[in-house]
Amino acid sequence: MREREGEESGLRMKPPAQVRRRRLRALVAERGFLSVGEMARRLGVSEMTIRRDLTALEADGSLQRTHGGAVLAQEEAPTPVDLHEPAFEARSRRHAEAKRAIARAALELLRPGATIGLDVGTTTFELARRLAEMRGLKIFTNSLRAAGLLANAAHDVYLPGGRVRGTELSVCGPVAVRELRNYWLDYAFLGVSGITAAGCFDYSLEDTEIKTVYIERAAHRVVLCDSSKFARMSVVKVCDLERVHRLITDAPPPPPLAGALRAAGVELVVAEPCEIEERA
User: Fold this and answer.
1) How many domains does the chain have?
2) How confident is the model at residue 91, as a pLDDT?
3) For the whole model, what pTM was predicted?
4) Are residues 168 and 43 in the same domain?
C-alpha cells in the first residue's frame, strides 16, 4: 500500500545503500574518475549521501577518494613513490624522443614578447634548447643550465640570486623565492617527477618552493611531463591538478588520471614524437 501511494504521489524510492554503492563503483570504473556532484546527479541522491558512500567504499578498499571525487582503488599495487633523484645526465637520456616532442609542442604556445618562467628539469631543459629558435622573449629561470644555454640567444634572460643546488645546478632558497615573487609571467613551464590524481610531485623541497612561485605568478601554468611519470609520486607534492592549466605529454594518461585531469579542467596535449618531428 505504501509503495503504491509513493508511486501515485510521484515519489521515487531510493535504492538500498548496497545497490547504490555497487552502481557507484561501476560508474567510477567506467569513467576513471567522477566528481561528487556528478555521482549525485547520476544516482539521484544528495551529495551528502554520496560522501557517506565514498567513505564506506574507501574503507573496504573499493575506491580511493580524491579532491572533489573518487578514482578506482589500485588493487594490484600502491602508487610507486620515488625517493631518490637520479642524476640529471641519467634522466636526460631517458625517454629523450618524448621530451623533444613535448618541448616542440610547448614552443608552439609562445610568441615574441612573452614573459616566461622556466623551471629546472630535463624536459624543461629540452624546451630551453628549442627557445633558441625564437626571438624577443623575457625568460626567468632558476636553472643555471638553461641560463647558460640561452645566454647568447636573442632573449632577455634573468637568474634570481640564492643558493646553488649543485646536483641539479638550480638556484633555490628564500632569496630566490623573494626575488621571483616580484615578477608576473605569461607562462610558467614546470617540470615534475610524477603526476597522479592527487596532483604533481617532485624530488626536491628546495626546487618545489620555486615551482610554487612560478605557479603563483603565471597566467598560464604548463606542466611538461612524459608518460613514464604517470601514476608515480615523489617526496614533495608541488600542487593539486586544479592549479595546472595544461599538461603536455607524449601519450594518453591511464583512465583514472585522465578522468582526474578532466575534472580539474586541465587541457591535455599529447605530442606524438613522430608527428612532431615531421612537422618540424
Assistant:
1) 2
2) 79
3) 0.73
4) no
